[in-house]
Amino acid sequence: MRVACPVFPSTVKETFVSTTVPQLSPENTSVRSAIPRTILMCRPNHFTVSYRINPWMHPQIPTDTSLAVAQWEQLYRTYQKLGMQVHLVDSIAGLPDMVYAANGGFVIDNTAYGARFTHAERQPEGPAYMDWFRDNDFDVRVPQNTNEGEGDFLLVGDTILAGTGFRSASDSHREVAEIFGREVVTLNLVNPSFYHLDTAIAVLDDSTIAYLPSAFDAAGLAALERRYPDAVIVTETDAAVLGLNSFSDGYNVVIADRAVDFERQLRERGFNPIGVDLSELLRGGGGVKCCTLELRR
Ligand code: ARG
């Protein structure tokens, strides 16, 4: 028997939960439970696209900062309704990508491994996020190696999946293994459109992931297939709207509302997908997960 167990106020149910009874395949009968998370976000008051450090960014096309803020607010409210504890770090003028809080660090066991950004345009964000961690009583580890935080480090159960190829240096993977004392699995990213690991893999619960196979080299793909034989495989179409760039509490999965096949697959597996529109922030090359840094005390 399977019992879906949403842990959030009924108002959210009315707004988000489909009345459709999920069609469960026989192998997916596990009980899903929502564990509300503690997260850090940054309101995109200064969001724009004024430089190009990934293929999604087109500085010649004007952006609408107020639309970005309105869409971000929708994500923020969604998390609050799901019972998450949302902290905010102040946005800084001149740092338009600071909204992508996932890149600000990687936090487990109250220890915050700071970010050291690849591109000069984002480098001041590293110290800004580390200041926030210090002010909020995290044990901050100043990074020795280039890394972009939870953009490239994803915790799945006790294993850390670590991306490299475009941003985080593989030396940072060793540093993370030493700091957190957990197994670190290096995965090479090969498609510049999926330049951070969190654009190519979604963590759904402690043992379930979703991913885009073509984003990885042969060794990375083999590792994923061996470790996660039941993973959700997303379509190129869904990945192209950053559908994988999503945030799960173990039952509710906040995703890009345009990732329709991913939404269907999540429902079939007994998850509760919740679509949001972050189209303006997509112009910076980021989505739901990029705007979300998990704080694990
Ligand atoms: N414009 C930002 C960059 O290229 C987007 C970061 C997206 N963040 C993420 N976690 N994938 O650095």
Question: Which secondary structure elements does this structure contain, and how are they paired or packed?
Answer:
Layout: H1 10-16, E1 38-41, H2 65-81, E2 85-88, E3 105-108, E4 111-114, H3 125-135, E5 139-141, E6 153-156, E7 159-164, H4 170-180, E8 183-188, E9 201-203, E10 209-211, H5 218-227, E11 232-233, H6 236-239, E12 247-248, E13 252-256, H7 260-268, E14 272-276, H8 279-282, E15 293-294
Parallel strand pairs: 1-2, 4-5, 7-8, 10-11, 13-14
Antiparallel strand pairs: 1-15, 3-4, 6-7, 9-10, 12-13
Look up the CATH topology. Answer: L-arginine/glycine Amidinotransferase, Chain A
How many individual helices?
8
What distance lies between the first and last C-alpha atoms, to the nearest angstrom?
Answer: 33 Å
CATH architecture: 5-stranded Propeller
Ranges with pLDDT <50 over ≥5 residues? 1-27
**What general outline do the C-alpha atoms trace?**
globular
| Helical residue percent band | 10-25%
Strand content: 15-25%
Describe the fold and architecture:
The chain is an alpha/beta fold and 297 residues long. The protein has one domain (7-294): L-arginine/glycine Amidinotransferase, Chain A, CATH 3.75.10. The chain has eight helices and 15 strands. The protein has helices at 10-16, 65-81, 125-135, 170-180, 218-227, 236-239, 260-268, 279-282, and strands at residues 38-41, 85-88, 105-108, 111-114, 139-141, 153-156, 159-164, 183-188, 201-203, 209-211, 232-233, 247-248, 252-256, 272-276, 293-294. The strands form five sheets. The chain has a three-stranded mixed β-sheet with strand order 2-1-15, with helices on one face. The protein has a three-stranded mixed β-sheet with strand order 3-4-5, with helices on both faces. Strand 7, helix 4 and strand 8 form a beta-alpha-beta unit. The protein starts with 9 loop residues before the first helix and ends with a strand. Residues 1-27 have low confidence and may be disordered. Arginine is lined by residues 53-54, 57, 97, 100, 102-103, 122, 151, 196, 198-199, 284-286, 290. Residues 53-54, 57, 97, 100, 102-103, 122, 151, 196, 198-199, 284-286, 290 line the site of arginine.
